[in-house]
Write a structure and sequence with these properties.
homodimer; alpha+beta; six-stranded antiparallel beta sheet; DNA-binding
Chain lengths: 229, 229
Amino acid sequence: MSEAKRESMQKYSSSKENYLKAIFHLQKSDGVVTTNDVANELQTRPASVTDMLKKLKAQKLLIYERYKGFKLSQEGRKVALQIIRKHRLWEYFLVEKLQFGWDEVHEIAEELEHISSRKLIDRLDEFLDYPKTDPHGDPIPDSQGRFTLIKQVDLLHLPPNKTGEVSGIGDQSPEMLELLKHKQIGLGTRIEVKKIFAFDHSLELKVRNQSIVTVSEHVAKNVFVKYDE
Amino acid sequence: MSEAKRESMQKYSSSKENYLKAIFHLQKSDGVVTTNDVANELQTRPASVTDMLKKLKAQKLLIYERYKGFKLSQEGRKVALQIIRKHRLWEYFLVEKLQFGWDEVHEIAEELEHISSRKLIDRLDEFLDYPKTDPHGDPIPDSQGRFTLIKQVDLLHLPPNKTGEVSGIGDQSPEMLELLKHKQIGLGTRIEVKKIFAFDHSLELKVRNQSIVTVSEHVAKNVFVKYDE
DNA sequence: AATTAAATTTAGACAAATCTAAAAAATAAA
DNA sequence: TTTATTTTTTAGATTTGTCTAAATTTAATT
């Protein structure tokens, strides 16, 4: 086994893995990730994030310069993808084999994703017949960390509890853009649909994993998101 | 849900759970468990064990007085049994569903046994069709922590890699008892058969999980063990 | 450009689980 | 029953991950 291979097999603490995962997700949506974002995502304090950034840097899992921002290294991305792979495979297992509802598996998968055995997860993948997406529609990375599938839909068709990344705008009129700008929605913004009102088909969205905003059906039809990571 | 029920659902650290499990196992074999035994079992230091004993006592998981010994409380036993249940169900899953060999599942199960969801393990039990024993022949406690199966056999018929607890002696002559006493074998002693020599059917035993001793076929035929925990 | 506000980092502390080295208690041996 | 040995416990440190409060840097406003 090569040295690089052995490296990727190293075991990190659950806490470190959670940071890597969170940064990976935030990076995908925002491009730029901030200390506050991470603190918010992980329900922790900015000071704790700074502490951890230093540790992750020391292990070459991310690139970091104080006050200047940070991003995952090649290695950090690889580790994050393996955690995501495990999380989603376990979710699939819970729903397909143990009859759990898709809305009750996340918490359990948060624990299972930290089980370290590589062989276990590859065997599980095989047992489940190599599923491409988890029960929420999120794609499952293969054993090399690659996604096989990317879906693009408008906001109305974004599955519940799925987070999409804005990939295109239909109506690009200044009025539309002004509205989107005001609501802090732009290319790459992460959006989750929280509710669709039967009355007028207006949508309640969670934007950047933080603010809750409401948009009309018309707006929703003109915002396209891709969900894949 | 009753108060007592909620109590048993509480989550303990993996470390605490490991201590409870180790003490449970040692208690079953020796009756009396010592600080050194635990340190030995968990590959740790006696001082660390003492520290943990105090914490476990504070949480009413064991009865403990300094220098005077300790044993699991009712609650501690209950928690230990749930860990053992989880460990063995996961081992069964790994062998029966994921095609692992019985000799490679222990390590993985050591991690999986700390996943906390009660619902998960009960669903897994159902999925596996309520197996009675794990791949090593050890019985799996049911959701109430009860074993459904107790087998009593003489040492010659104790399955390999199974640990039995001495439950009776056939030939109780003074000579026999003297021999057993010398080899530190008595009621309740935990024994595992390591090897049976084809030549004279003599047995090599691991006694109290520590010493290796040899006994004749005649002796083995007169020592009965139950294996169930 | 100067000032204010926000984000980030440092400094110092704490809880959990461990360790080493030394002290205290219990047990075994002379 | 003293003495010696072993076991157990205490005292004090260390590591990991977290926190609060204060300081520093960057960004935003006037």
